Amino acid sequence: MPSLTSEIHAFEAHASDADLDDLRARLAAARLPEAETVYRPAPDPRRWDQACR
Fold it and tell me: What is the pTM of this model?
C-alpha cells in the first residue's frame, strides 16, 4: 500500500481522437430519464419540486 504524502503530482489523461469521437457520439445518443416531481404536503413552500438539486 502506498504511503500518504502531501505532494501534488500532475495527471495527464490520454485518449485517441477516435475514442473521443466515440464518447461524444454515445453521449449525444444517450436517453436520460426525466427528473421526477416530488410532492411534499402543504404548507411546505417546495411542495412541488424536483428530486435532484
Answer: 0.46
pLDDT tens digits for range 10-47:
999 999 999 999 999 999 999 987 766 666 666 666 66
> What is the chain written as a DSSP string?
-PPP------------HHHHHHHHHHHHH--PPPPPEEE--TT-TTSEEES--
Prior bond of 41 cis (ω within 30°):
no
Residue environment code for 11-37, b if the CB has 16+ CB neighbours within 10 A, otherwise e: eeeeeeeeeeeeeeeeeeeeeeeeeee
